[in-house]
């Protein structure tokens, strides 16, 4: 127990901070922060598996997050029958062509010696395949996008409960990670970082501009929820009773029945949003807990020890007969799959999919700040980093505003400098993140909760 | 006549824009590659350092305009470049002293330095946004066009117009001047040679009496010059927006890697490779074929290989292809 003392203190401080927000701002805000903290925690766990366990830099987190989000759309939205009728067959045919291209390339790779001739064969297979793809898909895409473009204009999804998308998102991300890993994992670490960063941009470009897939920048809104809707809750008798019971002390103080009814109605509306957020928190906590238990078990298993050995001395591990390339690929796929889960969770929570909002700063670099600050190689550290950094990211603006008002209190209200500073309050979060990262890297390079090797 | 029209069409829509965009990328790519070659890390703050320099050029341009100073037909911003360079170099040297030098002396792995550069990226981004805000700023003044499409049509009697913006010509000329001075410096002067020696083999260079502090300082000075000039030229040609500058870092990285990272000449050409392929692949050739082919064979569709939305994706795909077949880049940079 003693060795976990600092972990427990750090987490208690974090929970205390969120409760403080609940008391001083509102419970709605506090729970929103908590939910996003949990989502960030899942993302950091994914990144931590890659960086902390194996020393792989993955700057493509944004791409995997977006793929998870795409999975949420493709799983939960009901299929658009009309679109399937006009273009479904051709799109399936396109899929077959892509599979054929891949198998064709694989066949050539296997059966021919490495030579110029082979490269030409591969190139011609890909070019011919792409041309056929263009010819087949062109009219189909046009007709799909013409189906009620204001409302649908895409193929839709499977119409399953959105919760399944968390698994589907993991598989989507894992698939992409497998392809990227095959291409780029042989590269040196910082080179891999650049490659993954650029590939994730390609992923976002495809999701943004292939409207038939998920409406692109037109966004998909109103995704189904795994939890009740506020409007439905407000008319449920058991919920009203619950709210009345919870607030009985405050309600008893009001004397007239009419006022009591009005106060109760107001309370029900307020508590319904809190209740919905609480449901999400519950779901997310389950995911985080499962992942924490599994990753923690894995970290101290023989496999985890092997990963650390590979990380710390690749050549020695190789000499011991460990297949470094294969293990790197495996861990890259696993970590990315966890990020994919987080992406699906995020879209589920928001209820909308907005490809335009995926930007590397928020979805790649911020997650890395979380991993580094929290403590790479330590799962509890990674989760804590997710919590602490997201909390700062949200609360940076109010804190900066307070500080500016305090420091410039000598200046008059209309002072141009002061007004300018107040206007640029939202950007102080970047400053805080940057300075925080630099300070941690300088003075506590292992993070708030450093990696701990348990000797058994 | 149709053939000439087709050539003019290509010149107007592909070659001139690609040359100027390529020049802007080339300057950034050399910045990336020099930092990588000499200081040995991937600098993720590249785009933001460029926007830092450009920001001061913009602010000074406004100041000069308010004073009534201008260059006539040329943009006032050109006058502000030296001042902006000084400020940028000072900023870079400060950052280096307080941030990067610690890890360099400790001989941390390059990954560590790349991570630290992300911290610098956040801080620089914050500074730029706090000072000038995240909005689109135009600071161009002077004559917009050297050659207008209508004038060209009247002059030659062709159907297709050729418009050349003064910023495009300025970009190309200034890039050529800056790059040639840089190559002269690296190849002919003693300091430049010592920098290349340091990049090739650090220990050997130190043994032969090269002062690492001096090399690092000069590297940052060159970086500051390249970043500011590249940023200002891009800003003049398009507009200044911190987010776009941050995004431009990605094709610059692609250019540096395609050209062979650590190799300035490769990065220079890599910029043009990226720019030309981006524009070649996303251009709709319908009109071109209408001029070249006989009427019976005129195409119905746009004849566009990829829609313009995929501009960035093209450059990154080239990068992936280069990674697969020639990991050291087209012009043999460091083997990674």
Structural overview:
The complex is a heterodimer of chains A (456) and B (336). Chain A is built from 19 helices and no strands. Chain A has helices at residues 5-24, 27-54, 61-76, 81-111, 116-145, 165-184, 189-209, 211-214, 230-235, 237-246, 248-253, 257-299, 302-312, 314-319, 324-350, 360-374, 379-407, 416-423, 428-443. In chain A, α3 packs parallel to α7 (189-209), α6 runs antiparallel to α15 and α16 (360-374) runs parallel beside α19 (428-443). The longest helix of chain A is centred in the middle third of the chain and has 43 residues, at 257-299. With 336 residues, chain B is mainly α. Chain B contains 13 helices and 2 strands, in the order ααααβαβαααααααα. A two-stranded antiparallel sheet of chain B has the order 1-2. The mean pLDDT of chain B is 87. Chains A and B meet through α7, α16 and α19 of A and α4, α10 and α13 of B.
Quick recap:
By secondary structure, chain A is mainly α. Chain A is built from 19 helices and no strands. The model of chain A has no long low-confidence stretch (mean pLDDT 87).
């Amino acid at each position: 127990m003693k060795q976990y003392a600092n972990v427990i203190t750090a987490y208690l401080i974090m929970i205390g901070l969120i409760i403080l927000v609940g008391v001083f701002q509102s419970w709605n805000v506090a729970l929103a922060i908590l939910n996003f903290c949990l989502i960030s925690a899942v993302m950091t766990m994914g990144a931590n598996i890659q960086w902390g366990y194996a020393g792989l830099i993955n700057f493509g987190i944004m791409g995997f997050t977006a793929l998870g989000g795409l999975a949420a759309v493709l799983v939960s939205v009901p299929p658009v029958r009309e679109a399937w009728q006009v273009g479904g067959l051709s799109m399936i045919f396109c899929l077959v062509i892509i599979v054929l291209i891949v198998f064709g390339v694989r066949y050539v790779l296997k059966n021919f010696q490495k030579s110029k001739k082979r490269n030409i064969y591969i190139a011609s297979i890909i070019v011919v395949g792409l041309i056929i793809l263009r010819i087949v898909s062109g009219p189909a895409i046009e007709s799909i996008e013409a189906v009620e473009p204001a409302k649908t204009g895409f193929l839709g999804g499977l119409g399953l409960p959105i919760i399944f998308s968390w698994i589907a998102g993991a598989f989507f991300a894992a698939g992409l990670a497998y392809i990227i890993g095959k291409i780029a994992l042989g590269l040196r670490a910082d080179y891999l970082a650049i490659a993954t960063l650029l590939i994730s941009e390609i992923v976002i470009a495809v999701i943004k501009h292939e409207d038939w897939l998920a409406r692109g920048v037109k966004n998909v809104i109103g995704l189904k929820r795994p939890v009740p809707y506020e409007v439905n809750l407000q008319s449920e008798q058991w919920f009203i009773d619950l709210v009345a019971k919870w607030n009985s002390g405050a309600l008893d103080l009001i004397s007239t029945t009419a006022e009591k009814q009005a106060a109760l109605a107001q309370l029900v509306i307020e508590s319904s949003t809190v209740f919905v957020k609480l449901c999400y928190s519950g779901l997310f906590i389950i995911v985080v807990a499962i992942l924490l238990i599994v990753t923690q078990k894995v970290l101290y298993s023989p496999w985890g020890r092997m990963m650390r050995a590979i990380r710390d001395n690749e050549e020695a591990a190789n000499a011991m007969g460990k297949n470094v390339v294969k293990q790197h690929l495996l861990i890259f796929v696993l970590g990315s799959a966890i990020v994919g889960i987080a992406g699906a969770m995020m879209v589920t929570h928001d209820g909308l999919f907005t490809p335009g909002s995926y930007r590397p700063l928020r979805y790649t670099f911020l997650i890395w700040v979380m991993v580094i600050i929290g403590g790479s190689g330590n799962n509890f550290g990674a989760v804590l980093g997710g919590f602490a950094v997201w909390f700062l990211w949200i609360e940076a603006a109010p804190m900066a505003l307070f500080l500016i008002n305090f420091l410039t209190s000598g200046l008059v209200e209309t002072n141009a400098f002061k007004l300018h500073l107040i206007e640029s309050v939202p950007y102080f979060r970047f400053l805080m993140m940057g300075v925080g990262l630099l300070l941690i890297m300088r003075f506590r390079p292992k993070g708030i909760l450093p990696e701990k090797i348990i000797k058994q | 006549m149709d053939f000439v029209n087709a050539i003019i069409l290509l010149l107007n829509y592909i070659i001139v824009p690609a040359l100027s965009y390529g020049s802007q990328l080339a300057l950034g790519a050399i910045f990336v590659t020099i930092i990588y070659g000499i200081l040995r890390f991937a600098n993720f703050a590249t785009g933001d350092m460029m926007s830092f320099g450009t920001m001061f050029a913009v602010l000074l341009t406004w100041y000069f305009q308010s004073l009534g100073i201008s260059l006539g037909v040329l943009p006032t911003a050109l006058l502000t470049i030296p001042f902006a360079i000084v400020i940028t170099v000072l900023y870079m040297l400060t950052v280096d002293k307080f941030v990067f030098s610690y890890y360099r002396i400790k001989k941390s792995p390059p990954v560590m330095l790349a991570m630290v550069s992300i911290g610098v990226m956040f801080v620089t981004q914050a500074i730029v946004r706090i000072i000038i805000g995240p909005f689109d700023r135009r600071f161009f003044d002077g004559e917009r066009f050297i050659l207008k499409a209508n004038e060209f049509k009247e002059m030659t009697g062709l159907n297709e117009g050729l418009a050349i913006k003064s910023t495009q010509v300025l970009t190309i000329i200034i890039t050529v001047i800056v790059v040639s001075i840089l190559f002269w410096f690296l190849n002919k002067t003693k300091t430049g040679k010592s920098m290349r020696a340091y990049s090739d083999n650090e220990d050997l260079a130190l043994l032969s009496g090269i002062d690492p502090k001096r090399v690092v300082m000069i590297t940052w000075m060159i970086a500051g010059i390249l970043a500011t000039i590249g940023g200002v030229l891009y800003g003049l040609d398009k507009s200044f927006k911190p987010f776009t500058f941050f995004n431009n870092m990605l094709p610059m990285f692609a250019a540096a890697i395609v050209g062979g990272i650590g190799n300035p000449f490769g990065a220079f050409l890599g910029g043009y490779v990226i720019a030309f392929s981006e524009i070649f692949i996303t251009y709709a050739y319908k009109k071109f074929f209408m001029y070249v082919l006989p009427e019976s064979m005129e195409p119905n569709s746009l004849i566009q290989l990829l829609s313009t939305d995929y501009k960035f994706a093209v450059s990154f795909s080239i990068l992936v292809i280069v990674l697969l077949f020639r990991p050291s880049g087209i012009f043999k940079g460091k083997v990674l």
